[in-house]
Amino acid sequence: MPAKPKWAQLADLIREQIASGELAPGDKLPSTAQLCSQHGVSAGVVNHAMIVLKTEGLVEGVHGLGVFVKEPPGEQA
Hints:
Blueprint: H1 6-20, H2 32-39, H3 43-55, E1 59-62, E2 66-69
Antiparallel strand pairs: 1-2
Helix pairs in contact: 1-3, 2-3
């Protein structure tokens, strides 16, 4: 069975960090450049992973500020 695509591996890692509490609601994710450097992937891989996580409602992008972990559903103020 082929390995998961790199974007899926990165999305899984960030998803696990959110689930474990390592990344809490309101936390800012590292920049695209930082994630590229940390994980040895391209900006396209990072962008694809962010799109998946945004679609799942786990993170949200704030123009000019970055990407942040969202409050879980039902816990938003």
